[in-house]
Amino acid sequence: MTVKLITHKPDHIIALEIDGWIDAEDIDRITKLIEPRIDAGEKLRIYAEVSSWSGMSLGAFIKDLKFSLQHLNNFEKEAIVSDRKWLEALAALSNTLFSSIEVKHFTPDEKDKALEWVMS
């Protein structure tokens, strides 16, 4: 499993661990867990620990983009925890492109700070 849920986080936080290649089935599995909470009217926040991400299939990219654009206003914040500099740049770009969700990058030694920020 490339994308898995991290348990024991507050209910309004979708906590994910990403490691390796993401395919369409990973996106389907995660969106099936998120959709009922969106349908219930919850504003959600994402906490993502990215240890190693080697990319995603075209099918995964299309599904993720479609879901994200449809539900952009259902998310408030996203904390990305990673040592990858390009993800830091992507977080900054996301803030510029999508003003409805605040995205912030944290290093692995700032995990506690990231969780505290995404919960605030």
UniProtKB/TrEMBL annotation:
Pfam families for the chain: SpoIIAA-like (PF11964)
Protein name: STAS/SEC14 domain-containing protein
Coiled-coil ranges from the UniProt annotation: none
Gene3D superfamilies: SpoIIaa-like domains (3.40.50.10600)
